[in-house]
Amino acid sequence: MDISKIKNTIKKEFEEIKNSKELRDFSKKYLGKQGEIRKIFGEIKDMTLEEKKVIGQEINSFVKEIEVEINKIEKTLKQDSLEKIDSSLPPIEIETGHLHPLTQVRREIENIFQLMGFSVLEGPEVEDLWHNFDSLNIPEGHPARDALSLGKTFYLRKNLVLRSHTSPAQTRYMKKLGAPLRIVIPGRVYRYERTDASHETNFYQIEGLMLDENISVANLKGVLERFLQEFFKKKIKIRLRPSYFPFTEPSFEIDMSCAVCSGNGCSACKKTGWVEILGAGMVHPNVVENGGLDPEKWKGFAFGMSIDRLTMMKYKINDIRWFHSGNLKFLKQF
Ligand code: DAH
Question: pTM higher than 0.90 for the full model?
Answer without folding.
Answer: no
